[in-house]
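Board notes (copied after class):
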Amino acid sequence: MLDQGAPPHNGRPAAPPSPGPLARLMRRKPVEHLVAEGGQGEGGSLRRSLGLWQLTMISIGATLGTGIFVVLGEAVPKAGPAVTLSFVIAGLTALFSALSYAELAGTIPVSGSSYSYAYATMGELVAWVCGWCLMLEYGVSVAAVAVGWGEYLNELLDGTIGVTIPDALSAPPGDGGVFNLPALIVVLLAMAFLMGGARESARANTIMVVVKIGALVLFCAIGVQGFRSGNYENFMPLGMAGVSAAGATLFFSYIGFDAASTAGEEAKNAQRDLPRAILLSLVIITALYVLVAAVAVGAKPWRQFTDSEATLAQIMREVTGQGFWGTLLAFCAVIAIASVVLTVLYGQTRILFAMARDGLVPKVFGKVSPKTGTPRANTLIVSLFCGVLAAAIPLGQLADATSIGTLFAFALVNVAVVVLRRTRPEMPRTFRVPLSPLVPALGFAFCLWMMGSLSTITWVVFGVWMAAGLVFYFLYGHRRSRLAAPAAPEAK
């Protein structure tokens, strides 16, 4: 009878059994490994130069302005005066997810945001799906916001020199134009700032954030003069379904509060400052959104709102009867929306940087310039892609597609918090989600509810996007993943 402990006949020990297909899809990256390789890229390292103030400004810069300056005109016809309630619902959905982001950002302070969190908790396939959704969130929202920038640029040009860019060059196909040149220009300007380095980009963003907060405060101070209580008599004319539909669209307004989590490898004290920056920025953003929406609907009957991206400038002009204030707001909006493009584009490049380091996307996205400490090739490729997308696709289709990708990624973050609490309870956490797992469960449920409020065509686009992502993963990322190497560490 053969001794069970005897070596095989060739004298060499048997090789350990290779993991099965399911195990390979579920392979996880240890938290310690994620943190240890933080900042390291091909040819150089990212530089830690950002403090709490800069991180908070990155989150506000990536978020504030998108919904108020661009999407408000589309949301009001869906909900009527109850659009203020839609903002609150969207804000609550963001808050639940923000709490989860804050805990994970303090525990896993790396550049990949929710992609990295999913990699450490739920495995490679889920991480890839999350990263693919983040590409939709960040990359496509850059294009969507850039489209709105052109509208306000025309308002500014009309109010100052009396000319506007022809429709053929200021609107994409389907919106009466051929090519949206202003949208391409603002993306290229943001690219130029990002090429200079994270600290320089953060300084420019801080200035732009101060300008846009000032613009919204100015709008409220002037718009309240035209406030008519009668505009709120029929508060919810389209019912809760309308409020929910508007809330799903307005969730686009909160995309970006997680941008600080993409700067985890460029923060001076990431574990302390990232959670604070995420939560502080969300509180400031929600308060301003609700206040501005309330003043806007009070100053203009909801049925008169159109899908124009320059809604606030038009309201200022109507209330004062003068073109100066509308022109001034248009100028501030041009600055404000440019800061959104800058910071969201920054987030997209850092997520791709993390994915390239893991081998799931081509290495070119992970190369860092020793001179500037930035992924320059990554920035160039992403900027050109987003610029062309902005020049060719109408805003509404982009905004809804971005919202569904974001909601899906946020839902996964809420799950990741609970999983990490159970699998690694001993890990030090600089912030803890209160009432866990209840709060993450509510965040997950809110995300699914708002996803269900989006249109069928949005779901079709999302399905096609996810199918394309899975094809890319199985043809490229699955085989080239660094965790596929025999010596790759496995999560505990």
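Comment from the instructor: Confidence is low (pLDDT under 50) at residues 1-9, 11-17, 487-492. The first strand starts at residue 40 and ends at 41.
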